[in-house]
Design the sequence.
């Protein structure tokens, strides 16, 4: 314990080491509280599900870009708060309030719910200028139990939007509008006056969306069918979305980055800890036994150090299509050799120390001397190497993923970058798709560099005074 | 004595290289087999097309016969182990055969030709980058070592740590996006414009295409090197002979460049050489992003097109260059530092 306190007192003095430790703790907290932080809870498991992301907007910049632009673009939102009333005819009315304070209307509004059976449905909106547009009215037939309902206003309200325009526009203007593709949402969110479709002026204020579920009329001699309509909400498909925007498959990049953090840490930790540990033990064994064993083992080491890691890793990944765990295994196989030589040279000195000689004279077995006497001295030294090996492992994984050879059942930063590269993000300037994943890799790398350099400074001189 | 040390080292290198190629043959056996079979199938079909005026059965019999003959010719009917050995020997003697899809710049499908025309391109880019990095690293490293613990030293060390885990190819993507697509001042990739200009302009065109990749490499490359040089120089500066040199009134410049750098040369040479040979094969994504037609880019293309002969050959050559580099390094080291040779006796 006192040894630990002594170590901590030394460590405290290293400012960059403390920063590294702080970021690492923050990362671990992010991993632990991931479900609370990310807006899309199943981002990690449903990253490649088209259905899961379909209500999002495509290639939308982050929300905070509005701070730097003059025309504020509508942000994606999910309207979940509603008031439910039942009118005299037994129709159920759900009211949603949407406070619109932007200059550019959202792309679309999507009505979502789950329902069973046949549901007659009317959706209307009351605008801040008290105009009411009945957006559409439809009947959903024979839904199976708890079937998801998804109605896009863009697709179903074009006619009603146009007839709303007709009330204000002159005849000749209206003819022009009909032929051009007037956006439904632009009509809903603009001030209504002649010529308003061509020169849109945003109408800011409180919009009330109303979903009316009518009571079905009972057929002769039958009971009135019960309408089941639950969990209604309205997805606003905005022009800007989330903390880090979305990619061209409508995925929320922020959720992806946070969901990828645990894999980066896992790959880094497992690969570095196991491979450095194996390397240390290998180095001690070859130094301890010396002679023929040393020659044979160092030849084997020479073989491994001559392997060009990345090309082989890529070929292996292409042939075997590894899961994330086998990839970690392969990384360990290729990276244990790195720490052997330094360990061996130090172990050669320790081997000659009197305490090893004493242990041998007392009849200690080889295994005991290696694991109980030599390894405890050399393992702390290797903590620094472990920390410094983490970024390399993460970069190797991202490189393999960037080539499209990673494990597709999880989401890693390399895969997000691969999608960005394949999706021409560089060409189209979708910087919010390229910068975050790489920056995340760089920050993790920096964190472990801070820790590794600090550990190196503290542990290295200790070893020499021993 | 140095002669024996050198011969021993070279022999060891050859043995290890053979073992590596053997491993690759094992790894590639199945896919290479499949490739060769489909090549045979293609050839048989082409030959059958030329057999005119024959009945369907005759053509089928002809195809079967040709297929058998070709399979025997390429040794595909031999037992597993024999196939691996023969592929190892073929690879070791640079008999890479023909590629399946990829062609060299003059349309040849000879794998050797395809590979050998990419080597100088990679070598040019990475050697040039290494030289620029080395110059900056030495200047900065010496400055850092002269005033250790001062703000310049501390600041640059901090930057070194911050950039420690930053992937080069990510910076490459950013710079391409910024300087090739948003601000269009550099080409987005390749080595020459198409069509390439003639004469001296061809050289300038290549340099123009090289600016962005070179800048990416250098921007990230020299930090680690300067830190490394700082540490070596710092430990040498504490030696007695440096103190005596200073006491004798030898100018500081001469102490730094004459005495200190001479002693620091072996590890610096190692660093630079390892950096160059490492990036030849390892810059797969980097070259891919800049479409720089070097070995790494070829590796990526071969992987995407599933061109196994090119892939295996590229891997073999990359490993060969790496192995050559390691041998050269040990030989140079033994030459520069006589103590190594004594260690080599064991």
Sequence:
């Amino acid at each position: 314990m006192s040894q630990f306190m002594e170590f901590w007192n030394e460590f405290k003095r290293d400012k960059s080491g403390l920063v590294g430790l702080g970021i690492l703790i923050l990362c671990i907290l992010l991993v632990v509280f991931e479900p609370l932080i990310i807006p899309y809870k199943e981002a990690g498991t449903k990253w490649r599900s088209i259905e899961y992301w379909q209500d999002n907007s495509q290639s939308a910049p982050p929300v905070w870009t509005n701070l730097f632009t003059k025309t504020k673009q509508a942000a994606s939102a999910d309207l979940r708060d509603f008031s439910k009333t039942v009118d005299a005819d037994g129709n159920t009315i759900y009211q949603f309030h949407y406070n619109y304070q932007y200059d550019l209307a959202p792309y679309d509004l999507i009505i979502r719910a789950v329902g069973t059976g046949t549901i007659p449905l009317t959706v209307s909106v009351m605008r801040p200028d008290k105009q009411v547009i009945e957006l559409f009215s439809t009947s959903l037939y024979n839904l199976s139990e708890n079937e998801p309902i998804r109605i896009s206003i863009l697709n179903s309200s074009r006619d009603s939007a146009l007839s709303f325009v007709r009330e204000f526009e002159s005849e000749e203007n209206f003819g022009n509008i009909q032929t051009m593709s007037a956006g439904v949402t632009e009509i809903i969110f603009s001030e209504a006056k002649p010529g308003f479709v061509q020169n849109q002026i945003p109408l800011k204020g409180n919009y009330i969306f109303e979903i009316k579920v009518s009571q079905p009329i009972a057929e002769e001699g039958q009971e009135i069918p019960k309408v089941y309509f639950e969990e209604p909400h309205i997805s606003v498909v905005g022009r800007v979305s989330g903390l880090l925007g979305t990619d061209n498959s409508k995925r929320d990049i922020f959720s992806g980055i946070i969901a990828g953090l645990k894999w980066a840490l896992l790959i880094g930790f497992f690969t570095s800890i196991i491979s450095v540990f194996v390397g240390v033990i290998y180095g001690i064994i070859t130094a301890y036994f010396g002679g023929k064993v040393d020659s044979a083992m160092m030849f084997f080491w020479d073989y491994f150090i001559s392997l060009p890691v990345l090309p082989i890793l890529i070929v292996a990944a292409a042939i075997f299509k590894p899961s994330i765990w086998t990839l970690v295994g392969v990384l360990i196989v290729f990276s244990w050799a790195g720490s052997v030589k330094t360990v061996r040279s130090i172990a050669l000195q320790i081997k000659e120390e009197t305490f090893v000689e004493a242990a041998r004279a007392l009849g200690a077995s080889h295994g005991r001397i290696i694991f109980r006497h030599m390894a405890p001295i050399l393992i702390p030294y290797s903590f620094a190497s472990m920390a410094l090996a983490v970024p390399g492992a993460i970069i190797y994984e991202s490189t393999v993923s960037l080539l499209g050879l990673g494990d597709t059942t999880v989401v890693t930063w390399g895969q997000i970058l691969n999608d960005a590269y394949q999706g021409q993000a560089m060409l189209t300037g979708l910087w919010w798709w390229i910068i975050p994943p790489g920056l995340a890799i760089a920050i993790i790398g920096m964190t472990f560099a801070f820790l590794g350099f600090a550990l190196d400074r503290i542990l290295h001189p200790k070893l020499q005074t021993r | 004595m140095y002669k024996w040390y050198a011969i021993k080292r070279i022999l060891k290198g050859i043995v290890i290289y053979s073992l590596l190629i053997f491993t690759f043959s094992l790894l590639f056996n199945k896919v290479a087999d499949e490739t060769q079979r489909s090549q045979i199938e293609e050839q048989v079909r082409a030959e059958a097309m030329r057999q005119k005026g024959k009945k369907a059965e005759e053509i089928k019999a002809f195809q079967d016969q040709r297929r058998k003959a070709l399979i025997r010719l390429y040794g595909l009917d031999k037992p597993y182990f024999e196939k691996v050995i023969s592929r190892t020997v073929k690879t070791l003697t640079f008999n890479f055969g023909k590629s399946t899809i990829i062609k060299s710049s003059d349309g040849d499908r000879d794998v050797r030709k395809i590979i050998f025309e990419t080597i100088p391109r990679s070598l040019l880019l990475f050697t040039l980058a290494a030289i620029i990095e080395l110059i900056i690293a030495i200047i900065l490293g010496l400055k850092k070592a002269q005033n250790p613990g001062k703000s310049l030293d501390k600041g640059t060390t901090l930057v070194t740590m911050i950039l420690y885990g930053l992937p080069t190819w990510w910076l490459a993507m950013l710079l391409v996006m910024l300087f090739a697509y948003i601000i269009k001042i550099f080409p987005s990739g390749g080595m020459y414009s198409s069509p390439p200009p003639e004469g001296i302009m061809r050289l300038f065109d290549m340099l123009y295409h090289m600016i962005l990749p070179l800048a990416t490499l250098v921007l990230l490359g020299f930090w680690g090197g300067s830190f490394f040089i700082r540490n070596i120089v710092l430990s040498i500066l504490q030696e007695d002979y440096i103190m005596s040199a200073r006491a004798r009134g030898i100018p500081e410049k001469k102490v730094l460049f004459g005495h200190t750098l001479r002693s620091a040369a072996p590890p610096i040479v190692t660093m630079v050489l390892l950096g160059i040979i490492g990036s030849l094969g390892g810059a797969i994504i980097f070259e891919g992003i800049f479409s720089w037609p070097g070995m790494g880019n070829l590796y990526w293309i071969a992987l995407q097109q599933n061109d196994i002969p090119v892939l295996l050959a590229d891997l073999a050559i990359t490993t060969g260059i790496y192995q050559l580099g390691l041998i050269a390094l040990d030989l140079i080291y033994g030459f520069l530092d006589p103590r190594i040779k004594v260690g080599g006796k064991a």
Summary: Residues 111-336 of chain B form a domain with the MetI-like fold fold (CATH 1.10.3720.10). The mean pLDDT of chain B is 85. Residues 79 and 85 of chain B are 10 Å apart (CA to CA). Chain B has 13 helices and no strands.
